[in-house]
Amino acid sequence: MNQSLSSRKGYRLFNRFLVLAFLVVFLVCVFPVAGNGEPLSGPDDPAGLKVPLQKSARLILEDHPEKAVPILKTLLKAYPDYAMVHFLLGLAYGKLDENEKAVIEERKALVLNPKSEAARVSLGIALGNTGHFRQEIRSERQALALNPKDEMAWEAIGWAYASRGNWRLARASEEKALKIRNSDPSAHMILGVALAHLGFPEEGMTEEKEASRLDPDDRGVKRAISWIATLLHPVKEGEGTGQGHFNPLLSPENGPNLPGVPSPDVPVNPNNNGNGTLRAPVGH
Question: TPR repeats: which residues (predicted)?
């Protein structure tokens, strides 16, 4: 990528959770745990905490974060010093595109529980959604220091590197993510674009086709496939523009150019993740 995305706000799929099913079981409410096995509540917690926490987690998982927010705010009035309440509230804010509030809540969660891997990853994504990619990278590295096998953190840090145009580190990060969990379409998508930028378009197309198989409706993947196709089958001179400038994190509604290529006459859409929404925070 020949341009920086560091001044833009968002970039990741909101409804995957972000693949996410992005996280597989990040908030599987049938089990009383949040991400990476962190319990929603413990045996010594107040009796009034467990049920509303599980209800809030379920609402976030079912894509109703707006219903979870008032429950969690009420919990905070009674239990202001519980990290899991702040974590879930940050998660809900992130899914509502209120990433500045998400950053505040995840930081509060980490003050109360510095070893919360889930809050570290969620904080990083919220920071990235506000354009602070270096801070996101730092937060994801801290999560990886807690658990080097955290697939979510590897996927997130790879996305942040891609946002900064560092395709070699983006490639390395997504390859590590996929060794841990090979069914993450977001990791395949970013890896494919990174490979294409590094001179391996055929391998990149293979990754994009796998991403498409895993998530057929992802517009970012469709745009990446369209772009890599122009590398494999170049258009004649004058028929296309900007082939070297593609980044999958750009919004598709940029004007008349090749998908993913910004038009000089149209400002970049800050909601630049292919589905027209911000990248999701950790959790779904």
Answer: 83-116
